[in-house]
Specification:
It is a single chain. By secondary structure, the protein is an all-alpha fold. It has a domain of 104 residues. Helices cover 85% and strands 0% of the residues. The chain is built from 11 helices and no strands. The longest helix has 64 residues.
Length: 376
C-alpha cells in the first residue's frame, strides 16, 4: 500500500511538471548587442550578467548604478593614496595600498547593492536596506575625510603651524616646571649658603667701616672720636682681620659644596634642554594624518565657512555612496528582478524535489528492509 502511494505521488508530480513546461511563457527576445563599456558597467553594478543579457530594458539602470560604484571606488583610491602618503611618505607604498583599498571599497559596494532583492513588501525592502544605508554612509565619511584634507591643504598647513607653536609653548612651560622641581632643592641650599656668605661679608664690611671711623676720629657710639691708630683702632683692626678670616674660611669650607650644587643644577638644565630639543624635533614633524585631522577639526570650529564647506563635501560623498542603494530601493520591480526571482526559485524547487525524492527513496528502502526481515 505504501509503495503504491509513493508511485502515485511520483506520477502526479511528473504530470504537474509536464503541464508547467507546456504552459511555459517565453518573453519576446530581441537581439540587442552589448558593447564592452556597457558590459563593464553592468559588471560593476553587481548584477547577474547572464540575466541582464536577457533584459536589455534594465541595462541603463544597472549601467548607472555601476558607474556610481566605479567612481566611488576611484575616489576611494585617491583618498587612500593621499592618506597613506601623509603617513608613510612613500609613493609606492601609497599607490599599492590605495589600489588595494579602492578594490575593497569597489567589491563592498557591489555586494551592498547586489544583496538588495526586490521581493516582499516595500517595508521589508526598507528594513533590509537600512543597515546597508548606514554602512554606505559610514564609507562615505571615511572616503571624504582625506579628500577634505587635500582640498583645504593650505589652510590645514597654516593651522598645523599654529598647533606646533602652541605645543612648543606648552612644552616650554612644562620644562620650566620640571626645572624648578628638580633643581629646587639645590637652588634652595645654594641660596642659604649665599645668605650665610652675605652675613660674613656684612660683618666684615661693618668692622671695616668702624675701623675707618676710629682712625679718622669720627664720633659715634662705637668709636672714641680720637684721630689716629690708637688702642681702640688696634682692637677694631683685629676685629676686622678676624671677620676677614671668618669670611675666607667659610668660603673655602663651602667652596666644594657650591661647586657640587652648581654642577647638579647645570646637569638638570642640560638634561632638560636635551630632552626639549628632541621633543621640539618631533613637534616640527607634527604633520601626520591624525595631526591634519586635528587641524581640520579646529579650522571647522574656528571658521564657519570652512566648517560648512567640509560638511557639504562629506554630505556629497555620503550621497554618492548611498545613491546606488536608494536607486535600487525606489525603483520598481523590473524584468531583471522577475528573472532573478525565477532563477532562484527554480533552484529552490529543484533542491526541494531532490530532497523529497531522496526521502521517499529512503523510506521505501527502510520498508523493504523490514519486509525482508519478516520473511526471514
Amino acid at each position: 500500500m505504501y509503495q503504491l502511494n509513493d508511485l502515485r505521488f511520483e506520477v502526479s508530480t511528473n504530470k504537474l511538471f509536464k503541464k508547467m513546461k507546456a504552459q511555459k511563457i517565453n518573453p519576446t527576445i530581441v537581439n540587442h548587442r552589448m558593447n564592452w563599456f556597457q558590459k563593464f558597467l553592468l559588471v560593476c553594478s553587481g548584477g547577474n550578467i547572464h540575466i541582464l543579457r536577457k533584459t536589455p530594458s534594465e541595462w541603463n539602470k544597472f549601467a548607472g548604478i555601476g558607474g556610481i560604484i566605479l567612481f566611488t571606488a576611484v575616489f576611494a583610491t585617491l583618498s587612500a593614496g593621499y592618506a597613506m602618503f601623509t603617513v608613510f611618505d612613500d609613493i609606492w607604498i601609497s599607490v599599492g595600498f590605495s589600489i588595494l583599498w579602492g578594490l575593497m571599497i569597489f567589491n563592498l559596494d557591489r555586494y551592498i547593492v547586489s544583496s538588495i532583492k526586490k521581493t516582499g513588501t516595500w517595508w521589508n525592502q526598507v528594513l533590509m536596506a537600512i543597515p546597508r544605508l548606514i554602512l554606505a554612509a559610514f564609507l562615505g565619511i571615511i572616503i571624504s575625510k582625506p579628500l577634505e584634507l587635500k582640498i583645504f591643504e593650505k589652510e590645514v598647513n597654516k593651522q598645523l603651524n599654529t598647533i606646533i607653536q602652541r605645543n612648543k609653548t606648552q612644552l616650554q612651560a612644562e620644562m620650566n616646571g620640571r626645572i624648578l622641581q628638580q633643581s629646587g632643592p639645590f637652588e634652595t641650599e645654594k641660596k642659604q649658603i649665599q645668605a650665610k656668605v652675605a652675613e660674613y661679608q656684612k660683618a666684615y664690611d661693618s668692622a671695616s667701616v668702624e675701623l675707618e671711623k676710629e682712625i679718622l676720629g669720627k664720633q659715634s657710639g662705637l668709636t672714641s672720636g680720637k684721630v689716629g691708630f690708637g688702642s681702640n683702632a688696634k682692637r677694631k683692626s683685629e676685629l676686622k682681620e678676624q671677620r676677614r678670616q671668618d669670611l675666607e674660611n667659610y668660603q673655602k669650607q663651602i667652596a666644594p659644596r657650591l661647586e657640587y650644587l652648581d654642577k647638579e643644577i647645570s646637569k638638570v638644565y642640560t638634561n632638560i634642554e636635551t630632552e626639549r630639543n628632541k621633543t621640539e624635533t618631533f613637534e616640527d614633524k607634527f604633520n601626520g594624518f591624525a595631526a591634519r585631522l586635528q587641524a581640520l577639526d579646529e579650522l571647522g570650529k574656528n571658521s564657519a565657512i570652512i566648517g560648512i564647506a567640509a560638511t557639504f563635501i562629506m554630505g556629497l560623498f555620503i550621497c554618492l555612496e548611498i545613491s546606488p542603494v536608494l536607486v535600487k530601493l525606489i525603483s520598481s520591480v523590473g524584468p531583471y528582478d522577475y528573472l532573478l526571482d525565477k532563477t532562484e526559485n527554480d533552484f529552490r524547487l529543484y533542491a526541494k524535489e531532490k530532497i523529497e525524492k531522496g526521502n521517499v527513496g529512503t523510506d521505501w528502502r527502510i520498508e523493504d528492509f523490514k519486509e525482508n526481515l519478516k520473511k526471514e
